[in-house]
Design goal:
single chain; mainly beta; Thrombin, subunit H; Pdz3 Domain; Jelly Rolls; 3 domains; nine-stranded antiparallel beta sheet; six-stranded antiparallel barrel; 5 helices; 35 strands; globular; PDZ_sf; PA14_dom; PA14 domain-containing protein; peptidase activity; Chloro_Bact_Ser_Proteases
Length: 483
């Protein structure tokens, strides 16, 4: 993911973002409003039960903003507290706007917190972010799989026109809007800025998340119902291979964190975790919902023993497991020197899907860098892919230095990222690799200004250094022998 072309491209993306429900504001710093019962998007007087529900749900609702680096304004949306350790669920398309960075969440105590993106999915428009917190926060209660029903009254929070802690009332008109598994909300003053807004039922449970505002019918919005929300998050977060440390536990997507699978030989099996155990806590992470298990995986930082508290036959048991480091990747066969570079003209975002567009230019390059990419005055995105050779088995750390943004993947695992959140040096996740060659992908996007890109690695008996041409290779099929 000429000057007039750049402005036009960004304007199109802005319009797409507006149609999805996020709204840009030209404020150069986050505006604030007093915390309390929240602003009401519609004016009719509220009944006592409505005021009580707002007071109950407001502490778990968050406002969500991302600075547009090119326009010096903010793209806004809403979200909800996912876990007490400082994890929130927000909408992804605000973050994916080209030139976006510096994400922040606003809490009900009227504080702004910078945050980092932990996981996101452009397909489901869901994004999990983490922010620093003090005392544990009370997270939202996520309803079980089949909670929403047509005709239910719901409470929705959003940030229209950057007005914090705004809420609106609506009802669920239908559950399969546009032949998709999305519920349609009507009757409320839901408008731009409610994107990502949590939808609560009368019990104060999260039953959905707004992901589109109807531009043809005023006051109508589409939302992911809780059943699809749970499945999407489980699908996006469930691959333990994306986490540096693993336990080997499988859960279903229902609310109760009941174990449905234990990988053979895994730390969980060795610790004594059994099928039908209900997770209560992993380390310091309380597991009140099956989705909290993935928060626990994100919080693991070493192979040091960690307590796993489970409920079995009505009793709580404390087991001890030593998380396993991600398995070393197997090498591939030798290939020819160089990398393939696929270049797509025009400014793109940090999560641009290379498979969705034909490249403007494809070429073989000897190494990773942008010095050889010329003739792209309107910005560009480039993907380098091929293989990297490592000399010995062990743990390696890759790093990316990029002026605007980029990512590094080894064997399909993201191991380094540089964006507006991470600073010039980016962030890295060590990975174990066997001696030999491994698939590497480096994504880099440039909008305007300086163009700098360098990828380094370090490992066993290998001091930190740029990845040179002698370590980079590309797939090659030798010609068939002549008869």
């Amino acid at each position: 993911m000429p000057l007039s072309i750049r402005i036009t491209t960004l304007a199109v993306v802005s319009l797409l973002a507006l149609a999805a429900g996020c709204a840009p504001t030209e404020a150069t710093t986050p505006a604030t409003s007093p915390a309390g019962d929240g602003d009401v998007a519609s004016s009719p007087p509220e009944e006592p039960w409505q005021r009580e529900l707002v007071s109950k749900c407001l502490p778990v609702a968050v406002d969500w903003r991302v600075l547009h680096l090119g326009k010096h304004g903010w793209y806004v949306g809403a979200g909800v507290l996912l876990h007490e350790a400082g994890y929130a669920l927000v909408n992804a398309h605000v973050y994916l706007v080209p030139g976006a960075g510096l994400p922040m969440v606003h809490l009900s105590d009227d504080s702004w917190r910078s945050c980092r993106v932990m996981a996101y999915s452009p397909e489901s428009d869901l994004c999990v972010v983490k922010f620093e917190t003090g005392p544990p926060l009370e997270p939202t209660v996520i309803a079980d799989l089949n909670a929403p029903a047509p005709g239910q009254d719901v409470l929705v929070f959003g940030q229209p026109r950057a007005k914090l802690q705004t809420h609106a009332w609506a009802s669920i008109r239908r559950l399969n809007a546009d032949h998709e598994e999305r519920m349609e909300l009507v009757g409320g003053n839901i408008r731009k800025g409610f994107s990502g807004g949590p939808v609560f039922n009368r019990a104060g449970e999260l039953v959905g998340v707004v992901n589109a505002i109807d531009v043809d019918e005023e006051g109508v919005a589409k939302a992911l119902p809780v059943g699809r929300l749970r499945r999407e998050l489980r699908y996006d977060l469930n691959d333990e291979g994306q986490y540096p440390f693993q336990l080997g536990i499988g859960l279903w997507s229902a609310r109760e964190p009941k174990v449905i699978a234990v990988t053979g030989g895994s730390p969980a099996q060795q610790a004594g975790v059994k099928l039908d155990d209900v997770l209560v806590r992993i380390g310091d992470v309380r597991i009140g919902d099956s989705l909290h298990y993935y928060v626990a995986l994100m919080e693991l930082s070493s192979t040091d023993p960690v307590d796993i508290v489970v409920r079995r036959d009505g009793r709580e048991l404390t087991l001890t497991a030593s998380p396993a480091a991600r398995a070393a990747l197997d090498p591939v066969a030798p290939v020819r020197p160089g990398l393939r570079a696929r270049i797509i003209s025009g400014p793109q975002g940090p999560a641009f899907d290379f498979d969705s567009r034909e490249p403007t230019l494809t070429k073989l390059v000897p190494s990773i860098g942008v010095d050889r990419i010329t003739g792209q005055p309107a910005g560009f995105t480039v993907r380098f892919d091929g293989y990297v050779s490592v000399p010995a088995t062990g743990e390696y750390t890759f790093a990316i230095e990029a002026d605007q943004g980029g990512k590094v993947f080894i064997g399909g695992h993201q191991v380094a990222v540089r964006d507006a959140l991470t600073g010039p040096q980016g962030e890295s996740t060590p990975i174990r690799m066997k001696a030999g060659m491994h698939p590497i992908i480096v994504d880099f996007f440039w909008i305007t200004g300086r163009k700098t890109l360098q990828v380094t690695y370090e490992g066993p008996n290998l001091p930190r250094q740029p990845i040179g041409p002698k370590a980079l290779f590309t797939p090659y099929t030798p010609p068939a022998p002549q008869e």
